[in-house]
Amino acid sequence: MNPPPDRRPAEAAVPDEFRRAADTLRSVLSGPPLRPELDLEEMPAPQRLAPYAAALSGSVWRDDDTEAATGRLILLYDPAGREGWTNGFRVVAYIQADLEPDIAADELIGPVAWSWLLEALEPAGYAGESGTITRAVSESFGDKSGEPSTTELELRASWSPTGDDLAGHVAAWCEVMCTTAGLPPAGVSALPDREGGFGR
Q1: Confidence class for position 129, pLDDT limits 50, 70, 90
Q2: Which end of the chain has fewer surrounding CB within 10 Å, N or C?
Q3: pTM for this predicted structure
Q4: Rounded to whole angstroms, how far apart are CA atoms 77 and 85?
C-alpha cells in the first residue's frame, strides 16, 4: 500500500513573503535577548489554520526560577487571503500568567490587559484585532485542601499586521507577557517592597 501523499508545501514552493516573515521570527531568537527574564524558542506551528505557519513559545521566569507566565505566538500566511486579514498574514497570540487573587477580582483587569496589548502593538501597526481575556480560579480539595487557591489570566488574541515590521509584533507579545507576569517596563526596577503589577 502506497503511503499518503505529503501535502505540506515543498520548500521551494514557500512564498518569499512568508519565508521573509519566518526568518524575521527566527532572527529574534538569534539576536540579543529582549529581557533576561524571558526565554523564547521556536515551536512546531499548527498546520490546519493556514497553508503556511511559524510559531514561537515563551516563558517569563522569576528570580526564584519559578515560571510566572507562558505564551505562544503563531504567524499564519495564506496567499489567497482571508476575510479580515491584511496582506495574507494573521498573528495569533496566547498568554497565561499567575495573578494575585485580589488583583484577579478587579473587574478592570480584562480591559487593562487588552489595552496593554493594543498599546504594545501600536508602533508595529495592526488591524482587525479580536480576542478574549479569561480569569480562572483553581481551588484545591481533599488531600490537597491545604494548598492555596491560584488565579490565572489567559489572553487569546489575533490581529493582522499592517506593515512589514514583524519583529515589532514579536516584541509587543513579549512585552505584554512580561507585563502580565508582573515585571516592570524594561529598564525600570521594581520597588523593593513589591514584586510588580500583576505578579505573585
Answers
A1: very high
A2: N
A3: 0.81
A4: 9
